Amino acid sequence: MTSDALAIRRAELTDDGRWACRAANAHGHVTLRLHLSLRAHLTIHAQPHTQFTILKGDKEFAK
After folding, report:
1. Does the pLDDT at position 29 exceed 60?
2. CA-CA-CA-CA torsion for 36, 31, 10, 7, nearest 10 degrees?
């Protein structure tokens, strides 16, 4: 045995549903049935607030 975990890499929303995992060896087999529920990962892309200063003579204006 190299691992005691089942990994589903790059799971997508379409992978949602019923799954079965079966392991077998010379001593028998075992099956695990499960329901996989996936939710969309929320990603927020926010741009930084732009700030600049206008210099006019000896006056400074911030925007």
Report:
1. yes
2. 120
Amino acid at 42: L
Q: Which tops the pLDDT comparison, 54 or 33?
A: 33
Backbone angles phi, psi at 62, to 5 degrees: -105, 140
Rounded to 5 degrees, what angle do the CA atoms 31, 23, 8 make?
85
Q: Which tokens sit at 11?
A: 């799971």
The number of beta carbons lying within 10 Å of the beta carbon of residue 46 is 5
**pLDDT at residue 18 tops 90:** yes
Q: How far is CA 27 from CA 21, 54, 60, in A?
A: 17, 80, 82
* Cβ pair 34, 6 in contact under 8 A: no
Q: Which amino acid is at 58?
A: D
